[in-house]
């Protein structure tokens, strides 16, 4: 299977989210900074001042460029801001997971995967 | 021949008839196998879908609890630890490993979480106060992330299965609606062509035999006429023994001809 | 005797603080708050005591924004006090801000170590720990420059000087730096209130030495408990214990040798208060997570909660004394606890976790 090689060395999680979500997930120990000089973090804190293009870029980096990321966690309200990219990203790797944040409870209606699930069963 | 499906471009010979029959047989076996595979996958798929739905709901709850434990931390520490946490993250402690599971020949990846116990970036965070809450928060979040990883496996499996099922169903449909009818058509075509050839051959032979009969009849009449003429001549000349001999030879020849025809 | 002249310089400040104290939320207020259905309701309930400060908040603000605004009020009140005070009282109030400064400096050190733009960090600094020369520290691009700037520009220089060199900032975990500074700060503060001619032998010394001793003991105990399972060695740990307090020196020595929670409990058993705390939460805590999440002791209180409770009680008692700037300390702690309480309550409301909403410390 061709995919076999592509997921073998994926071992990190990446997160794009608000400060609290990122802090919590980092506490769980998912944070990873690659070796210098190009110290790349696998997390991005999004606040009201963060540009959408920056989120977009981080999302592209985590999903396309980095080959060591297995799961991308993204706050749902952040995903809303780049909904198009999230919806069009359909590769199995890395898995893109929309997670709720503290201030934005989870809304299954907006989840791109759940939307597909619902559509498949014609609900 | 129904024009929608068409047939294979083959010469209608008995050999290709044999080939087509073997092909039809193969297609039918393949169809039933693929159908079964597709059913197995779909079963799995539905199960996964159900579990995704459940897991997503569960995730909502788990993340809420986790977020709450973070609230406890900020209550205990009495300040903001976010920045410090972000800066002190260096090595991932929580990692995932991918294994795969074979479902009807499809490799579904499964993420398995594990912790690098040697890595401990935040060991001293909250040393002065709030350390216990931070510790608990870390555990809570680690559990939450495990749930997330589980969900990620399901989701990946969902995407892969979705793709595979589509491909398999496409194949099943192709076999069912294109290959089998086409092969059947081809067989029908070959059969009808062969029948046609048979009939033509039969007709041709009949025609040949008719013609032969007609020719024979004409030849008989000629011979008869010749004989009568000869008899008349003989009667006129009176040389009877002369005519007897060629007649005997002719009779032999005629019998031989008949044998050859039928 | 001290009452004779205190009011010349400190009377106004004390009066103001007593006024502030009256605006602290009471048990009645808290029970109203816990009945709220949304953050907007909370905001409404807080109206009488916080008024203008909350007016700028958008509808249904986040809990952190709410806490931020409440802190703003505390800060502006404190700034008013410090502007009104003179002499030893002013010095005393400045001492109160050093704790926050330590946090701010630690933040900047973290930023500099990771080569971030420290200017962004300024807005994350605690406003109480703000001093005029703080932005100057952002100019530093490496840790040595920062170290020198800290020595020159900040009132914290003495805390750095004796125990930390600029190499230490590189190698030591920032938490150790922070706790070393804090230890030095507490010792200095303790020294200040016990030896300053205006305070020695006054109620201020009485109150503050008790409070600071408690603070020192609390830190020692916490550091010990939190260091289990980390790479912090016993020697290093011992260096972080403030060298005064009820536990010092025997208790501290025992703490420095403690290897588990039982060891800590044994070390503190000489002091009745702490012994009572450890008994209350049960000795088996620590390993299985203390308090909360329903897994802890029945009353859901963790050791930290009990410490906070004790701190609040002491802060409350401060107000029974007169002729001392220590009331400012008491008021500040009470106010901070109040902000934490409100944050907790609104967090519970926002996240629909009502069952634990009562887990705050109401003093009045």
From TrEMBL, chain A:
It comes from the Eukaryota. GO terms for molecular function: proton-transporting ATPase activity, rotational mechanism. It is found in: Vacuole membrane. Its main location: membrane. PANTHER family: V-TYPE PROTON ATPASE SUBUNIT F (PTHR13861:SF2), VACUOLAR ATP SYNTHASE SUBUNIT F (PTHR13861). Subunit of the V1 complex of vacuolar(H+)-ATPase (V-ATPase), a multisubunit enzyme composed of a peripheral complex (V1) that hydrolyzes ATP and a membrane integral complex (V0) that translocates protons. V-ATPase is responsible for acidifying and maintaining the pH of intracellular compartments. Belongs to the V-ATPase F subunit family. This is V-type proton ATPase subunit F. It comes from Penicillium steckii.
Automatic annotation (TrEMBL), chain B:
It is a peripheral membrane protein. Its main location: membrane. One of its GO terms (cellular component) is vacuolar proton-transporting V-type ATPase complex. It holds the Pfam family ATP-synt_D. It comes from the Eukaryota. Keywords: Hydrogen ion transport, Ion transport, Membrane, Transport, Vacuole. Residues 229-262 are annotated as: Disordered. It is found in: Vacuole membrane. NCBIfam families: V_ATPase_subD. Belongs to the V-ATPase D subunit family. This is V-type proton ATPase subunit D. It comes from Penicillium steckii.
TrEMBL record, chain C:
InterPro entries: ATPase_csu/dsu_sf, ATPase_V0-cplx_csu/dsu, ATPase_V0-cplx_dsu, V-type_ATPase_csu/dsu, V-type_ATPase_csu/dsu_dom_3. One of its GO terms (molecular function) is proton-transporting ATPase activity, rotational mechanism. SUPFAM superfamilies: V-type ATP synthase subunit C. Keywords: Hydrogen ion transport, Ion transport, Transport. It holds the Pfam family vATP-synt_AC39. It comes from the Eukaryota. GO terms for cellular component: proton-transporting V-type ATPase, V0 domain. Belongs to the V-ATPase V0D/AC39 subunit family. Subunit of the V0 complex of vacuolar(H+)-ATPase (V-ATPase), a multisubunit enzyme composed of a peripheral complex (V1) that hydrolyzes ATP and a membrane integral complex (V0) that translocates protons. V-ATPase is responsible for acidifying and maintaining the pH of intracellular compartments. This subunit is a non-integral membrane component of the membrane pore domain and is required for proper assembly of the V0 sector. Might be involved in the regulated assembly of V1 subunits onto the membrane sector or alternatively may prevent the passage of protons through V0 pores. V-ATPase is a heteromultimeric enzyme made up of two complexes: the ATP-hydrolytic V1 complex and the proton translocation V0 complex. V-ATPase is a heteromultimeric enzyme composed of a peripheral catalytic V1 complex (components A to H) attached to an integral membrane V0 proton pore complex (components: a, c, c', c'', d, e, f and VOA1). PANTHER family: VACUOLAR ATP SYNTHASE SUBUNIT AC39. This is V-type proton ATPase subunit. It comes from Penicillium steckii.
